[in-house]
Task: structure prediction
Amino acid sequence: MTLPLVAFGILSVVALVSAILVITRRNVVHSIIWLIVTLFAVGGIYLMQHAEFLFAVQVILYVGGIMVLFLFVVMLVQLDVVMRQPRFNRQWQLALVTVLLLVAQLGYVLYNRGHGLGLPARPVVPEPLRNTQAVGQMLYQNYMLPVEITSLLLLVAMIGAVIMAKKKFE
Amino acid sequence: MIPTEYYIFLGSGLFTIGVIGVLTRRNVLVILMSIELILNAVNINLVALSQYFRSVDGQVFAIFVIADAAAEAAIGLGLIIALFRNKETVNADEIDLLKW
Result:
């Protein structure tokens, strides 16, 4: 047992357990807090793979932005009615059968008759030292047009959210 | 060095949990959170394979996925607010206006 393996085990157990808690808690605020724990664990996994920039994006954008948005909406939506209602819908047996099919598919693909993923050989080029620099150069050189399209998408989403959450919806 | 397969297994597990949440919960807010879990599972896979192939393309795609998650959360939460204002509910199985 090496130290990275122990760290990976702890982070993945935290991520999976808190993800299960997210979808089983009755109180939505508790779900949000467990989701934040999951997001931090996933961020730790990014950090283990030397994706430092993505870790920062995960913490700032996901935990600091999206989760705060979720919390605001939960405060706006009445919760005490939901607390007394059943958590799961009527077709949950059918949903579990579907999930079992999904697990079977995933297991079939990942096992692949004992070959595992069958990844091609790892290239021998050295790892780029400065992750943020590498990501920034890739974003603004090779992926210039997608960055612009993403900014347009965010603008459309912002206008759409404002229009839908307005008082008068006509 | 941790094998890349382990990261893929973790991503598959998170994806499955997210799918269970989307299919079984009644609360629309929890369904949106399950979608965030699914997107995080995809990001884990992208980053693991990006690290395996020693290129940062996968991490750039993960950033795009996070930006899309932000847009999706804003739109989805706006929809939930409009829905709650009109129907006084956040349960997915009570929103059946288009069902006959």
About this structure: Chain A is about 75% helix and 0% strand. Chain A has three domains: 1-85, 88-116, 129-170. Chain A touches chain B through 85 residues (CB under 8 Å). The helical segments of chain A are 3-24, 28-48, 52-76, 80-83, 92-111, 131-142, 144-164.
